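A quick aside before the break. I want you to see a complete sequence-to-structure record at least once, exactly as it would be stored in a machine-readable document. Don't worry about memorizing anything.
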Amino acid sequence: MNPIGVIVARFQTPYLHEGHKTIIDQVKSQHNKVVVVLGVSPVLGSKKNPLDFPTREKLLKKTYPDVVVLPLSDHPLDTKWSSNLDSLLSNTFPGAGFVLYGSRDSFIPYYFGMKKVQELPENGKHSATLIRQQMSDRVMDEEAFRIGVIYAYANMYTKVYPTVDIALFRNDRKEMLLGKKEIDQKWRLLGGFSDPTDATFEEAGLRELHEECGPIVCSPMKYEASMRVDDWRYRHEEDKIITTLFSTDLISGEPKGSDDIQDVSWFTMEDVAKMQEDKMLAPEHKPQFDLLIGRYLK
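That is the input. The structure line, written in tokens, reads:
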């Protein structure tokens, strides 16, 4: 019996480029039945894996309607992933033989299964990664384009955005530095969104301090609490913000407002408590201020 030709790939591309077509055509020329196994990322919607399985299946079926397309979830262990691949094929086609095909940057170095593997020669310098980069900021005035954008966002996991807020103290924690933004002219804690380059939330807190009030020197970040933030930008969204509140003490340096903080100033804890009563503080920081006032107002 002629074995089944199996292409293991991702096809994260808006269209099949000539490299894709050459691989599929080569395998089809050698096998009566061809299967494409599509890797499925555990991350739902990302720059590297923007297209879900049904979208890629339709892409392949449009040009190659007779090709069987199967999904295979990614796995952190190559040995387990290989076993899952073998089981998927054997269970879908009992008793059949298989030849697994890959080319440049393929699955082959990570495969430890029992099926026969054959590497196909590289055909040109086609790159799905480059195509995604070229398409990433292209806007089209078409209904299908807008439907695709809506579909993409509707099929992403609901997210929690991590932020950090920092209470910077001096004078034995009797005074706290607050910042003011132009958008609402309310005094607030310094801080902002954590960045993928931050190794820890503590590192994010120090980075935000430097961005918003200059190259000051302070004591190590002390964890105070974490809480949801009632940010006006996400109030009516499913996605939400959870912040980590830190405190630290100024060692040296003179804070000056920068980035999106137009002004900074020191306030006694008594002043902060009165400002909270008079609604002079940013409302989204009310839980943080309530905790700090209760903890540090002597």
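Two observations worth writing down. The helical segments are 18-30, 53-63, 78-92, 128-135, 143-154, 201-213, 269-277, 286-296. The mean pLDDT is 94. We'll return to this after the break.
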